[in-house]
Amino acid sequence: MESKRISLPPERGYDKAYELAYKLACEHLAKTVDIEEQCRKSGVELQVKASQKSIVVQYLNCPYLISVPDGAISPADSDERVPIRDKLLIIHYFNTAKGTPATTRLITFRELPEGNVYFPTFTKRTIKPIVDNFSQQPRLLITVSEKLGGHKVDYGDAAVTIQAFRRVPVTIILWRGDEELPPQGNVIFDANISDYLPTEDITVLCETITWRLVRYLREK
Predict the structure, then answer these.
(1) Which numeric CATH code is attached to 106-219?
(2) Could you tell me the pTM of the whole model?
């Protein structure tokens, strides 16, 4: 039987870069003058307990705490270790958030800044695994997405919207295909997403979502 341990593709040589990026993001956080305003922009909660400030960020249906001012990140309801890529996404979301309202205009990955540059990697690590694992039973995409707080939306043969962060919805669409067309998938975003995450982080975020969904599918 195939192992149920599913993880993101290896990022050899990237861990040091992620650690450096996280360190820089923590330094940025420490210099933030108005934490309450940045909480408003990102739609998160500022929590104060015994003079210790923490930012409560909902990320993929789970709450995380960012300690202020040092930027340490931990799950709000467990002692699990937070992978460096998740830490970086969480703190980048908070630091980057501009508070831009949702536009209701949807865009594809190619329409993001430098989206064409990242698109081959995005397709390989996000869209292809979704198609490979869910195209035969598209409705399972809806079922397993519930673990990430996903809900069904009306696109393709199956589609879900997952609220990755408070102001970053990610919609995954799947088409089963037929005798003339192969199965296909796509990922779409509100047009304001670049006011909350840079394109490189959006790539990592969608890859993270994809492989969690695949893992949940294998565990069924």
Answers:
(1) 3.30.310
(2) 0.91
